[in-house]
Amino acid sequence: MSVVSAVAKRLVPLFDRVLIQRAAAETKTKGGLLIPEKAQSKNNEGVVVAVGPGARTESGDTVPMCVTVGDKVLLPEFGGAKIEMDGEEFQMFRETDLVAKLN
């Protein structure tokens, strides 16, 4: 079992929160040149690792989530709570903070 799936089973987000693992930044260009760390940009894509049940309305009904585990999403440049488990780094966002779902 991979570290990501182990974390997903132990950590279940509440309400409309989504646990995401950011994609790794590119270290090489298509031509094979190495990119220095300072020149690497922060990648704004990630994979959904775990999702909560959804937000609640005033009447107590649950609003279903738009994303599911395994979806690729576009993240905002700033925000999210950083979580580190088993040597892996994850970020927790609210569903409304996610920019887009990638196909």
Task: Describe how the helices and strands are arranged.
Layout lengths: L2 H8 L6 E6 L22 E7 L3 E2 L5 E2 L8 E3 L6 E5 L2 E7 L5 E3 L1
Antiparallel strand pairs: 1-2, 1-7, 2-5, 3-4, 5-8, 6-7
Structural class based on helices, strands and sheet pairing? mainly beta
Assign a percent range to the helix content.
Answer: under 10%
Counted by DSSP, the helix tally is 1
Can you write the helix and strand succession as a string?
HEEEEEEEE
Q: Give the C-alpha Rg.
A: 15 Å
Beta strand %: 25-35%
Write up this protein.
There is one protein chain. The protein is mainly beta. Helices cover 8% and strands 34% of the residues. The protein has one helix and eight strands, in the order αββββββββ. The chain has one helix at 3-10; strands at residues 17-22, 45-51, 55-56, 62-63, 72-74, 81-85, 88-94, 100-102. The strands form two sheets. Strands 6-7-1-2-5-8 form a six-stranded antiparallel sheet. The protein has a two-stranded antiparallel sheet with strand order 3-4. A hairpin with a 5-residue loop joins β3 and β4. The longest helix is centred in the first third of the chain and has 8 residues, at 3-10. It is elongated, with a radius of gyration of 15 Å. The relative contact order is 0.28.
Q: What's a concise summary of this model?
A:
The protein has 103 residues and is mainly beta. The protein has one helix at residues 3-10; strands spanning 17-22, 45-51, 55-56, 62-63, 72-74, 81-85, 88-94, 100-102.
